[in-house]
Design a protein that fits this description.
The chain has 12 helices and 16 strands. The model is unreliable at 105-110 (pLDDT under 50). The termini are close together. The protein has 375 residues and is of the alpha/beta class. It has one domain: L-arginine/glycine Amidinotransferase, Chain A (5-stranded Propeller). A 4-stranded mixed sheet has the order 3-2-1-16. Helix 1 (41-55) links the parallel strand 1 (22-28) and strand 2.
Amino acid sequence: MDITEGTPALHGFRMPAEWEPHSQTWLGWPERPDNWRDNGVHGQSIFAKVASAISEFEPVTVCASASQWANARDQLPHNVRVVEMSMNDSWFRDSGPTFVVNEGKSHSKHNVAGIDWNFNSWGGVDDGCYIDWSHDLLVARKILSMERIPRFPHSMILEGGSIHVDGEGTCLTTEECLLNKNRNPHLTKKQIEDELKAYLGVKKIIWLPRGLFGDDDTNGHIDNMCCFVKPGVVLLSWTNDETDPHYERALEAFTVLSNSTDACDRKFEIIKLHVPGPLYMTDEEATGFVQVGEAKPRLPGTRLAASYVNFYIVNGGIIAPQFGDPKWDDEAVRVLSKAFPDRKVVKIEGAREIVLGGGNIHCITQQQPAGAQAQ
């Protein structure tokens, strides 16, 4: 059921914070050989590891193409649901729906709906990651139809990885992504803010200038750069190395956050989460990609957009990437454990494999909030 009259906020919906209860998590299944090396073997293994870890906390649905359904079913635990779905690639944070909830006047139940944003492969034919995204355009609609959840269609191009909310009226994003001319060149900053407020139910947008250094595929998504721990507290992707090109970006973000307040007029507590490495794509890794001319090339020596901020909050847990960096892997777990004392931090070794494809754990997951579905 499409809701074409009025916006989510007008109907009383808001986007809940990621730490609010989930009914399930959605993931896609990677396979395209020009973005997942060695025909997706390594990527599939790590996706299965992520899905398995999440399934210890909440239900998981993995969507796989017809040719990959049996393979996905074989690799995933029995308690993970596997359904058939066409897709151009498996970044469900960006191609999947953004779920919103409506507590209702009685606050006795949550009603759930989904926003189906427009999608153009992170930049369109000229700047995007691949030139055919026709299947991705239908992912959100298919998920919402499968769950019988009302759909708010929107013509604005927006990926879920470009926004973070605190559930209390504040949205974090980056100018580098949302104001990029390869997304919505016809919209002003004010118009984009108005759409975010109308569809996410937020009251204030905090604009960080840029995202993580090297995150060129997404043009600086916020979920690699900064996220909420709880209202008034954020984790910021940081480096102590002043010669690292990310340092300038981290410092300018720190400055903006230090001089901002949230929708409830709180000053931000900023927790620094140091980046790994720096890490670079090896010759061996690069040779595993089959370039067919449709996707962005994966070149040896490329700085990988690796960030510990790209973790995922589940019911009672934190699914955290590990990159094989003995110093910063352990430090990230320590920082996350302290930031989320009531949640179990689960380490996902080998998350570098997802970074080779252009994202990380948060990018491949999409939470569906708990609550009674709207009818």
